[in-house]
Amino acid sequence: MAQLTFDIPKVDEKATRARVKKMFDSYHEDKSTLETMERVNPLWLTHGIVSGPSEKQVAMYPTFDADMIRGGQVRNAEQELTELSELMDARAAHIDKMQNFCKSVERAVESLPHFEREIMERTLMVNKHARKKDFYIWPELAMTKDAYYKHKEKAMLRIAFALRIEVYERAGGGEAA
Question: Which superkingdom does the taxonomy of this entry point to (predicted)?
């Protein structure tokens, strides 16, 4: 009787951890952008719109007259409005994409076991400038250095699998996405 064999690819842990760190850099960029947009104009995030012109600005705009219609300026204005509308739709789609990405990263971190979540929140979830060094964190968590790094590596792999960004080794020794 023949025995079944499975060719299960092996995860390249080093490349996967590097990809997770890069993903957290993207997370911080998107999170910072969204927070800035929220401070500048909260309507961007909720409705994907910018504030319209004030009443004073509207009063300064010329009205459409027969000369403007004959000169084709009205048609150009309509085309510009269409292009602006398309741009606003693309911007709203990009904002949605950033919000979904940030939420998926936060959900992946929240799904981790307690110690792993604590480590990720104290190391990679905070901005680079506010991060503590690892050797300050493991005593705060009452962990040994070895246990700390074991939990940190597991957490990074779990996040990679949750977000489907793990890297596999190729049969020939190279990387595969």
Answer: Bacteria
Contact 85, 113 (CB under 8 A): no
For range 36-63, the mean pLDDT: 59
Domain ranges of the chain: 13-56+92-170
Query: For residue 68, how many other CB atoms are within 10 A of its CB?
Result: 15
Model confidence pLDDT, tens digit, residues 123-150: 999 888 888 889 999 999 999 999 999 9
Model confidence, pTM: 0.71
Q: What is the distance between the terminal CA atoms of the chain, rounded to a whole angstrom?
A: 36
**Dihedral (CA of 65, 69, 72, 77) sign:** positive
Question: Using CA atoms, how far apart are residues 10 and 42, in angstroms rounded to an integer?
Answer: 45
* Location of structure tokens 């850099």: 25
Report helix, strand or coil for 169: strand
